[in-house]
Write a structure and sequence with these properties.
347 residues; alpha+beta; 5-stranded antiparallel β-sheet; elongated
């Protein structure tokens, strides 16, 4: 005997049939053509099955309507009201589209990369006007992918296994090999960081994944070190907030760089500001953003492209320009990378 169709599958078959019927379907047609209803042992069993399924669909919000034939009040059929069942037009603002794009950046695994890319392409096609894609580009990715280092470091954190890698220091540019007991991967200020114990220095340290050069190599056995105590993690994370707090004045394009806006406060240029600077930022929103590490804020600002200009301080502007010029040199001439990153502090 053929295998009996499960109730969930039967409900789905019924929805498909009632959605695609050109007019209506009578009970007899449903019993004869919709898979699952032929399993009913008798007319009474079919009636109970269909009435129960019809009520279930309505409870789920699927508008199953009753249709009678003209002149034959007892000739009853059913269909799904297409107008009530259809989704309203999808209208996304640039910010909403940007948020979805940001979520997609976290799902770049090969198994879903193609699906997320196709979905975003369709969403951008119905976005808020011709500038929607450009506006969304300023919102994503605010937390960039961890690159090739992310997966082996995540495995090492879970296995409590030491790792060795080559690292380029942010402040000095020194490149040296590090042996680390990895504690945790943390997303902060637009990038991924490894927090762990530097074995050679015998102290907690944090490492930005984008500054790891080459391959991350596991060292030794699993379970080689104990998980960090709460106090150790707190000490390591507090080190990010060490140093003197300063303030940057940034000029943001409208509806762009939302992460910087959230941390900042509105401001204005002083009365004696350079007229050239005033002209450059005339159509932008000025915000004051607190920071401690110049290199950290510079990397975040550079990631926004021309959505953010640095009005002050000069050392932050110079750091952003160095990053953009380095990116332009790596990309080569004619690629457009770094275009517009002139002395006006474009970041």
């Amino acid at each position: 005997m053929p295998e009996q169709i499960q109730p969930a599958e039967r409900l789905l078959n019924l929805v498909i049939a009632l959605v695609h019927t050109p007019g209506r379907m009578t009970k007899e047609q449903i019993r004869r053509t919709v898979a699952g209803y032929g399993d009913a042992a008798s007319d009474e069993a079919f009636e109970r099955m269909f009435e129960r399924d019809k009520d279930t669909l309505r409870e789920l919000g699927i508008p199953v309507t009753t249709v009678t034939a003209a002149g034959h009040g007892d000739d009853i059929g059913y269909r799904v009201d297409q107008d009530a069942y259809a989704l309203p037009p999808l209208e996304l603002t640039a910010a909403e589209l940007g948020a979805l794009s940001l979520a997609a950046e976290f799902w770049q695994d090969r198994s879903v990369r193609a699906d997320t890319s196709r979905a975003l392409t369709k969403l951008r096609a119905v976005g808020a006007g011709s500038g929607a894609t450009d506006l969304a580009a300023g919102l994503v990715p605010r937390v960039r992918a961890g690159g090739d280092a992310f997966r082996p470091l995540l495995d090492a954190v879970q296995a409590r296994q030491r790792v060795r890698f080559t690292y380029r220091a942010a402040n000095t540019g020194e490149v040296r090999e590090r042996l680390v007991e990895p504690w945790r991967l943390v997303a902060r200020r637009g990038g991924w960081f490894l927090v762990g114990r530097d074995v050679d220095r015998a102290a907690p340290r944090s490492f930005r994944l984008s500054r790891i050069e080459g391959r991350v190599r596991p060292v030794g056995d699993d379970g080689a070190f104990d998980p960090p105590a709460v106090e150790q993690m707190e000490t390591a994370l507090r080190s990010w907030d060490a140093g003197r707090e300063r303030t940057a004045v940034l000029a943001l394009r409208p509806e762009r760089a939302e992460a910087l806006r959230a941390r900042g406060s509105a401001t204005a240029l002083p009365a004696d500001a350079d007229p050239a600077l005033r002209a450059v930022v005339a159509d932008r929103d000025l915000v004051r953003v607190p920071y401690r590490a110049t290199w950290e804020l510079a990397e975040e600002v550079a990631g926004y492209g021309d959505a953010v200009l640095v009005a002050d301080p000069p050392e932050l502007r110079a750091a952003v320009l160095r990053l953009l010029r380095s990116a332009a040199a790596l990309a080569g001439p004619g690629t457009g990378v770094g275009d517009g990153a002139g002395e006006d502090g474009r970041g």
